[in-house]
Structures are given as C-alpha cells and as structure tokens.
Amino acid sequence: LLLFWSVTDSDLSKAFDRVIILFGWINAPLHLLQKYALQHRLNWPSSDIIIVRSFVSWIWWSEKTRVDILRPVADFLISTVYNCIADVSNNAPGILIHCMSNGGGWHLMTLSKMLFQSDSLAVRTGRNIRLAMVFDSVPGIGEYRSLFVFSSQGVESGAIKAALTIPSFLIWIYLFTRAIVSREETLLTRLHSALQVDQLLPRTEHQAPRVYIYSATDILSQAHSVERHLAVLKKANPPFDIEVEKFARSRHVSHAQTDPERYWDAMRRVWDRSALSNAKL
C-alpha cells in the first residue's frame, strides 16, 4: 500500500525542504500514481515522496488495521520532520499533502488522528511546520451513487450495470446501518467534518494554505459537494488561504490530464504561499 521514493545521493547537495505525501484515489493503478510522483520529482527534485495507495477494502477495515497501514508514514514524519522542528538548530523540511478523491481523504483523516494522538514529544513541542495541501476531487457526497458509479466503471452493458445496482445498494445499506448502530457519522460525513478543522496536522498552527481542484462534470465527487464544503469552510473564516480551481469538463481525478499546466501551477502556488504563511508566525 505504501511506496517511498527518497532523494538520491546526487540530490544531497540540494536543500532537503519537503516531504510530499500523495494519497491516491480508490483502486488507482500504481503506474498512474507514479506519473504524479514523477511530476512532483521534476518540480521538486530534492523531496522525499510517499505514495499511499487506497483500495475499496478500506471500507471494511477496522480502525486498528487502518492505523497499522499508515504507521510507517506517521513514523517517517515524526523522525524526518517533527524531530527536526524540535531541534532549533536544524532546518526542518515542510510537508506537501496531495490528496486525491475520497479514498485519499480517508487516509489523510486517519493520519491526522494518529499524529494528534501521538505520544512523541517532538509532535507536541517545537517550531511550526511548513504545510500546504492540495485536494483533488474531494470531498464528495452521495455514498450510494458513488458506490454504483465506481463499481460500474468500464462496464458497457446496460444489463450488467443494472445488475450491479443490487450489490452497490447492499453495501450502502450495510454502511448506513453500521453508522446507525455505532452512532457514528457515515464515512463521507466524517470526511467533510475532518476537512473543516483549521489544523489537519500538529504544529501547523492553522496557517496551511489549501487549493481545491474539482470539475463541474465529475459524477463521483460532484461539484456541489466540494462547493458545499467550501461554503462551510469559508463561512467559518479560516486562518489560512483557500484557492479554488474549478475545471469545466474534466473527469474524476483527471484534471491534470485535461490541463497539466493549470493543475501543476496551482500546486506550485500553494506551496509558495505556505512559505509566506509560515513567515507570519
């Protein structure tokens, strides 16, 4: 589920100034995620890059399993970033979060909880971390519709699509019933709530800028879902900058293919703004 891509020996002469975490969408092919990682490498050659893959089985996992999967990521951030900010003599690297679709959002939600609950002294004390966040096609709503569209991707036959409505509906019933019995919010409701907090990672002091990239024609993470989230977020007058890139016709998590220059320029801008935000503190 995890792929670490560290700087090479030839890069060591350059300043190590960021860890990039790419949270992939559900069942994303590895070769597509590697294309995003390669572009990150071209943009920022001295960065360490972590690819976190997401699978539909995440829905069934226990919280312990989800935490165990992400434990290497949390440990890496503590040792590489948080231990550096605890030592005032070191220049600590920043963190760039690249979160794709709800699957990526759920992993980020889990990692955030893990770090805030960490017993590490370095996580709770020290200087502020430079953090920037990119949300691509997230957060979505409409769990049943999303499940059906996801399960029927690539299916041309109308009869097969009709048959797929039954398992999709049964899965949705299971998730909805489990949420009622456990008296918990549904996964997507929890995701919306998690992304509405000011501080997603410890020691960022609310100053991490965000960019939301989505499309008017996305049928999985629909535009009105992202815009509802943004309306709630902006109404709370958050202490961080928010940039919005709304594409007209790109498909789900395909905005970088539709207009790569626009997509990656937004990525670079949000990272540049994180330096300005950190300088204010």
Question: What is the CATH superfamily?
Answer: Alpha/Beta hydrolase fold, catalytic domain
Secondary-structure-based class equals: alpha/beta
Count of extended strands: 7
The N- to C-terminal Cα distance equals: 36 Å
How would a crystallographer describe the biggest sheet? Answer: 7 strands, mixed
What's the CATH architecture? 3-Layer(aba) Sandwich
**Average pLDDT rating:** 83
Low-pLDDT residue intervals, each spanning 5 or more residues: none
| Helical run tally | 10
Strand order of the largest sheet: 1-3-2-4-5-6-7
Instruction: Please state roughly what percent of the residues sit in beta strands, choosing from under 5%, 5-15%, 15-25%, 25-35%, 35-45% or over 45%.
Output: 15-25%
Radius of gyration: 19 Å
CATH topology: Rossmann fold
Shape: globular
Total number of distinct structural domains: 1
Helix and strand element order = EEHEHEHHEHHHEHEHH
Oligomer classification: single chain
CATH class: Alpha Beta
Helix-residue proportion: 40-55%
Q: Secondary-structure map with pairings?
A:
Elements: E1 2-5, E2 18-26, H1 30-43, E3 48-54, H2 63-86, E4 94-100, H3 101-116, H4 121-124, E5 131-136, H5 143-151, H6 158-182, H7 187-195, E6 210-215, H8 223-235, E7 242-247, H9 255-258, H10 260-279
Parallel strand pairs: 2-3, 2-4, 4-5, 5-6, 6-7
Antiparallel strand pairs: 1-3
GO cellular component, one term: nuclear membrane
Membrane topology: Single-pass membrane protein
Keywords: Membrane, Nucleus, Transmembrane, Transmembrane helix
Would you write up a description of this structure?
With 281 residues, the protein is of the alpha/beta class. The chain has a single domain (2-279), classed as Alpha/Beta hydrolase fold, catalytic domain (Rossmann fold). The protein has helices spanning 30-43, 63-86, 101-116, 121-124, 143-151, 158-182, 187-195, 223-235, 255-258, 260-279; strands at residues 2-5, 18-26, 48-54, 94-100, 131-136, 210-215, 242-247. It has a seven-stranded mixed β-sheet, sandwiched between helices. The chain is globular. It holds the Pfam family DUF829. It is a single-pass membrane protein. InterPro entries: DUF829_TMEM53.
